[in-house]
Every structure is written in C-alpha cells, then in structure tokens.
From TrEMBL:
SMART domains: FDX-ACB. Residues 347-448 form the FDX-ACB domain. Its EC number is 6.1.1.20. PROSITE patterns: AA_TRNA_LIGASE_II, FDX_ACB. Keywords: Aminoacyl-tRNA synthetase, ATP-binding, Ligase, Mitochondrion, Nucleotide-binding, Protein biosynthesis, Transit peptide. It catalyses: tRNA(Phe) + L-phenylalanine + ATP = L-phenylalanyl-tRNA(Phe) + AMP + diphosphate + H(+). Pfam families: FDX-ACB, tRNA-synt_2d. Is responsible for the charging of tRNA(Phe) with phenylalanine in mitochondrial translation. This is Phenylalanine--tRNA ligase, mitochondrial.
Length: 448
C-alpha cells in the first residue's frame, strides 16, 4: 500500500503534551480530562493546601542536608517508573488498567519513586526531597482521585567517607542529633517476614537497624509537627476542642525497591489511615546508579492524605477547586505558617443517586476472554470523563452470574453531587444518559 507510510504519520498518531510531542501507539489511554490538568502543579501553587503541606514537611528536613526538587517533568519512561525500581514484568501496576500510558515505553509517573535512580546518580547531596503530581487510574470516592501528590525523600551515607567506614556508628550519631518527640508510637518495630523483607545481602544487621531508626524518627517528627499544627488550628476554631489521643503505628509493607519496608498508619476518624511507604533502599538501585558505596533509606508520602488531616478537608476533589470559598481560606498561610486555620466546609449540596445495570459482553466475563477483559477502572474513567468533578463516588452494589448463560451482570450506583452548587435533576439525568451510552459504545455492555 503506497499510502501506509503516509497514514502512520498522520497528526493523530502524535500527541502534544507539556510542550513535547509524543508518538502514540495502542497503549495510549490518556483521556483529555487528565491531560488538561497536568499543568496545575498544586504542590507549588502559593497558598494552596497541598503546597502548604509540602512546605511544612520540608521544614523538618534541613536544606543543608536535603536538596529539594519540586519541578520534575511528569512524563517518564517505563524504565524510570518501573524497571529502575525492580518491578517484575508481571507487576499489576504496569497494566493499562492502572497506569496512564502515552505509548508502550512512556507513562505519566505513578509515583515520585520514578525519579529516585536519576537523583541518586547525580550524587550531589546526602539527601533529597522530590514533590510532584502523580497519576493513577483508580476508584472514585472521597479519598481517591486520579491525580494526587507525593513527596519522596531519601538520605544516604557513603562507606567511603564515613569515619572508619563504620556506617552504623555514623548513622547512630546522626540519629542521636535528631530532635525527640513525645508522641506514642504503637508497634515501633513490627516483626518482619524473612522472605518478603529480608536484611539485604550487602548490609550488616546493625547498619540496617540504624538506618531504620533514623528513618522512623525522621518521619515521626513530621507527623508530630503536622498534628501539633492541626491541634493549634482546631483550638483556634474551638477553644473547647478536646483532642483525641494521637495514635500512630508502623506496619510491615512490601515494595520491590526497599527491604525491609514499612508503612506508617495514623488513627483518624475511627480508622487506621495509611499515609506513607518507606524502607531501606535496595542496594541494586545504588549500584545501577553508579554509587555502590552508598546506603540509606527512602520514603514516599501522600500529600493529600496529610493535608486532609492537617486542615480537616473532607473530600479530595476540593483540592482541585478554583472556587474562592475554598482558595481564600488559605491565603497568606505560606508567609506565616502560624496563621494556619482549619478549613470551614461550605454547605453540602444535595446528592443525586442514579443506578445503572448491565450485562458484560460474554467474552469478557468468561475466563481468558481475549483482549476485552473488563476492569472496574474503565467504568470509573467513563464516569469521570462525562461527569468530571460532579461525581462524588461510584459504588458497585450488585453482581451476579446467570446460572444458565454464565453471563455476568453488574449494578453500579453513581452519586452526582457538585461541591460548588446544586445540580438539577435534568443535569444529573443528562450526565447519566451519556454514561449509559458510553458504557455500551466503549465497553460493549448490554444495558438492562
Ligand atoms: C508508593 O507509591 C511508593 N513509591 C512509596 C515508597 C517510596 C516506598 C520510597 C518506599 C520507598 P503507595 O502506592 O503505597 O507507595 O503510595 C504511597 C502513599 O501515597 C500512600 O501511603 C498514600 O498516602 C498515597 N496514595 C496512594 N494512592 C493514593 C490515591 N489514590 N489518592 C491519594 N493518595 C494516595
Ligand atoms: Mg501503599
């Protein structure tokens, strides 16, 4: 075909993002609603609660030791996002249902760890902080949004430059120099599964123990700072405020790029909330980054989760609001962190629930149904594309398989509610009608 080379270079095979041109292929799955938000960079927007939270956490990591990076480009290679961190090829995080792809080798970063290896390779400081927007295809509810913000941190020590090559002694000395806190920590040292979280081959037990202690103290100081500021703001709002006993705990976790690994959880509104992942950096990452004599820790913390605790912000969509009733509440805080106030919610507008029930295409409900396997994130994205931030949550409330035909039926309830005004029933109906149509057109379902 004489036209084939012409056809493959038609404009539609390229996409322009953030001033760069990318070749699309059949991995491309980035909807315009996400692409259009890439430029927002809430973590550096003056007086935005995400930016305020970043600044408070940064204040606990002195800039003489930690270099701050707040402007890394959001589009990275799969090498940076996955391979450099030791993600196995079949890791679910790599799939199109979980990650936004531009093409087979290019993604919107799913975590700030995507930049770890590059910064270790620069070898320009003993520590670093990286704050950035990250992207994940995910559920829709009050604590999940497809774009959120993380802060990555790492601290390393070099066998070649510490006195006598004694890493453990050097780290314990730095640990002793850290401030103390009087927060109660439940499970400061949870037991570690020997296969999932072994001591790394190139590490001595006392080295890993010292690094873990330095990591945990550094993070506990962050949490203590956040809670003391949150408490002050609560007392300012209500002088009779009686705080609940703050509870935090360390739990064992697994990451391909740290061992041993921990998550930190905070007891909040009746439940344990995970706020960060952390651990002793996999020595292979250091070796591949050309700094094999360095050893240290890393963590990644969710800035929205911390900001929600700090300001008592009830819904993650609020962070994206351009409404003055939201933004004006934080003005001036970055010039004077002591003026930080609790968020005062504006009135809640009525919810509008709409249900949709459908049969999945038979090929997608059967095992190994070709390339058309159904994934819940596909529904989430269709709803989000149409309803945008006017959707509060999407919940599956029924599911069954027909005993004879083997076909599967699903029912979802969508809650249409704006944070900024009352939606009319007509508006909700028209969103819902579009959702129903798109489910048929894009997923090939049969409406019931
Ligand atoms: C990570 O992303 C690891 N890169 C963290 C890490 C870094 C571990 C360095 C070890 C060393 P995880 O997927 O658990 O891990 O996310 C880390 C934090 O991001 C979570 O604890 C949570 O606070 C936040 N987070 C994760 N998913 C969401 C979401 N959908 N919405 C809001 N915050 C989220
Ligand atoms: Mg996690």
């Amino acid at each position: 075909n004489p036209f084939s080379s012409f056809l493959t270079t038609t404009p539609s095979s390229k996409v322009d993002l953030q001033g760069q041109s990318y070749e699309k292929d059949d991995w491309f799955n980035l909807p315009p609603t996400i692409a259009s938000q890439i430029a927002r960079k809430l973590h550096v927007q003056k007086d935005h609660p995400i930016s305020i939270t970043r600044a408070i956490i940064e204040s606990k990591f002195p800039s003489q030791t930690y270099k701050y990076h707040n402007d890394f480009f959001p589009i990275v290679s799969t090498l940076q996002n996955f391979d450099s961190l030791g993600f196995p090829l079949d890791h679910p995080g790599r799939s199109k249902t979980d990650t936004y792809y531009i093409n087979k080798g290019t993604v919107l970063r799913t975590h700030t760890s995507a930049h770890q290896a590059d910064v270790f390779r620069r070898n320009e400081s003993e520590g670093f902080l990286i704050s950035a927007d990250v992207y994940r295809r995910d559920a829709i509810d009050r604590s999940h949004y497809p774009i959120f913000h993380q802060m990555e941190a790492a601290r390393v020590w070099d066998r070649k430059t510490v006195p006598n090559g004694d890493i453990a002694a050097a780290v314990w000395k730095d640990m002793e120099a850290l401030p103390k806190h009087n927060m109660t920590v439940e499970d400061p040292n949870p037991p570690m599964h020997p296969e999932r979280n072994p001591l790394q081959k190139k590490h001595l037990e006392d080295e890993a123990a010292a690094i873990a202690a330095h990591l945990k103290r550094s993070l506990e100081l962050v949490v203590a700072e956040i809670f003391s500021r949150a408490k002050k703001a609560a007392i300012m709002a209500n002088p009779d405020f009686a705080d609940e006993q703050l509870k935090v705990r360390w739990v064992e976790a697994y990451f391909p790029f740290t061992s041993p690994s921990w998550e930190l959880e905070i007891f909040w509104q009746g439940d344990w909330l995970e706020v960060l992942g952390s651990g002793v950096v996999a020595q292979d990452i250091m070796t591949n980054a050309g700094v094999p004599s360095q050893i240290g820790w890393a963590f990644g913390i969710g800035l929205e989760r911390i900001a929600m605790l700090l300001f008592e912000i009830p819904d993650i969509r609020l962070f994206w609001s351009q409404d003055e009733r939201f933004l004006s509440q934080f003005r001036g805080v970055m010039d004077n962190l002591d003026s930080l106030k609790r968020f005062v919610p504006f009135s809640k507008y009525p919810a509008c629930y709409k249900d949709v029930a459908f049969w999945l295409r038979s090929s997608s409900s059967a095992a190994g149904g070709g390339g058309s396997t159904f994934h819940e994130n596909d529904i989430m994205e269709i709803v989000r594309d149409i309803g945008g931030d006017n959707v509060e949550d999407v919940v599956k409330f029924d599911e069954f398989t027909h005993p004879k035909s083997g076909r599967k039926s699903l029912c979802y309830r969508i809650n249409y509610r704006s944070l900024e005004r009352t939606l009319t029933n007509e508006e909700a109906n028209s969103y819902h009608e579009e959702v129903r149509k798109a489910l048929v057109e894009k997923l090939g379902v049969e409406l019931r």
